[in-house]
Amino acid sequence: MEPGEGPAHACILRVALALPFSHLYDYLPPTDCPEDRLVPGHRVCVPFKAGARIGFLIEVSDESPIAPAKLRRAIEVLDQAPVIHTPQLGLLIWASDYYHHPLGEVVAQALPSSLRRVRAIAPRARDAPGPSTPHAPPPAAPVLTANQADAVQAITARLDRFEVFLLEGVTGSGKTEVYLRIVEAVIGAGKQALCLVPEIGLTPQTIARFQERFAVPIAATHSGLSEAQRRAAWWTTRKGLAPIVIGTRSAVWSELCRPGVIVVDEEHDLSYKQQQGFRYSARDIAIIRAKRHRIPVVLGSATPSLESLHNAAIGRYRHLCLPARVGCATDPTTEVIDLRRGTARGPLSAALIARITETLAERRQVIVFANRRGYAPLLLCPECAWAAGCDRCDARLVYHHETRRLRCHHCGADRPVPTGCPKCGSAFLCKVGHGTERVVESLREHFPAARVLRIDRDAVRGQAAWERVLARIAEGDADILVGTQMLAKGHHFPKVTLVAIVDGDQGLYGTDFRAGERMAQQLVQVAGRTGRAEDPGHVVIQTHNPHHPLLAVLLREGYSAFAAMALRERREAGLPPFSALALVRAEGRDTRAPEAFLQEARSLGLREGHQGAALLGPVPAPMERRADRYRWHLLVQARERTRLQAFLRAWLPQLAALKSSRRVRWSVDVDPQELL
Ligand code: ADP
Ligand code: ZN
Ligand code: ZN
Fold first, then answer.
1. Under CATH, which architecture does the 125-132+144-322 domain have?
2. What is the CATH class of 333-372+434-569?
3. pLDDT digits (tens, 9 = 90+) for 450-472
4. Which of 74, 180, 381, 548 gives the lowest tally of CB atoms within 10 Å of its CB?
């Protein structure tokens, strides 16, 4: 190419923009741009409508569906080198294709938000990782148990290839120690380890354990970071300066120069699935990523998802087990309290009160779980059965005693408590059910001398507050902890020997086909909070359904037996993992528009010949009205993923073209985790 002549052959930049459209945007190269800068993965500044936008160069092509005369010229190729490496770009393209989400948005969410704005990047001094904090000599690593040694051996023997390991072990069985050894081997070989942890509270504890063990820079990313910290972490990882990368869901997109292993802790955790916008599963992306990098991936959990257990059963994953707790910690004992027999007037049965009394007398800590925040989930008129409901949702308002307000936990509506029944005028309204506030009140009545600490999203806001609370608990500055599931995940509370579940019935009759699985996981995780040190733990479950088959199998035979039973049921019903699902959700302010759109979508799908995919619905969502929007669902089910994907590829573009689609907001969720 002669300078000033323009390209000898047509050179077209195909650019992804962070817009809700699935096609790429075509541009001519900027004037005077050297050809070697036109490499996929670069950020490009392009004219868009009257302004300019940042896009990502996906490919350089010699043709475009748009007439050459109509093509506009890109303004500038930013940055000296592509911000996205080629393997990473390949992964992002795969994910966009699999989840049927626009590539521009998929790429944009994988980068710190400051990189989506117009400005060339260069590392600033403070972007580089600081000298690591002065290091105490690393504590001596413990001698591995035989089971731990087997697991470490199995994984480290195969660091040079792709394989999925499912590491199943109860809380306290030493899974984290296994991760540490694998990471040690990986960084020893000059490679990087990526570790994913669930969203809630776990991050600081896990990071601390890695920092204690390794004197190398660790890039940590989680939701508590500022944009500058996020950017610094991104840069550090991108340059390969941090051998260890730890983070929550979005860390799965970290650029790695020398990938060596990916660890997904608590792989069953719902927080790995993004529930809005780009609805990906970080666990599944981790597996795909490991496969593309040809490295092992370790999925750890005390309560693996049924999908992973199934994959292990058919030999697709390698199953490694840590059957016992480390050291003298013994498994907790369980006791079911039949609420039908008792005469409990508040949330606490006489039997539970007796257990708490014993535990406090031994100077041990107690955890009491309630399912809901607030005081009572229902405010009811005993005369006419009026119940306080949300004006904007098909939901009840929760009575909060501390603020004396009624609140909707779905849309945030907040209003004063009526002095009497608005329907019949009765002066007395009944508060039904037990939220955390009421459980605290009841505990204070029965145990006036005990220090009771409430731990839920109302009482503990933000990471700093959370860490203060954890410190208080560790120092023994609390006798009874009352919490929602926020308290159930992965924390080490060595002084807790009694865990009580106030309402063990929730989840037994959920509408979602995964409700049973979730409840079993929660029960086991909750039980894992107790008896971690020398003292054996005890778990008390209050229920109206002591003979429910799910609860019975879980308590009598444990999680594995429960999972086997649940998998048999899934097989009979043709539900995942024995089929693949995609959920199309539509919502709108108009009562009929969502249903009308999904009906049309269904007709189109039937015409498509559905290629082995079944269309179920449309049906109203379990909560049809939320925040003044009407919500409907259409479920697509196929025996195999490939069939589901083939169908979606042919069908979804047609939905976007439907006129009725403009009257609703709609989305597709591949492998939905919650049918809400
Ligand atoms: P998990 O991740 O399965 O909950 P951890 O790895 O956190 O289990 O181990 C539980 C506790 O036991 C931790 O305090 C850890 O330091 C300790 N531990 C783990 N492995 C060993 C071992 N082989 N010998 C002694 N202590 C161990
Ligand atoms: Zn009334
Ligand atoms: Zn509401």
1. 3-Layer(aba) Sandwich (3.40)
2. alpha beta
3. 999 998 888 888 778 888 888 88
4. 548
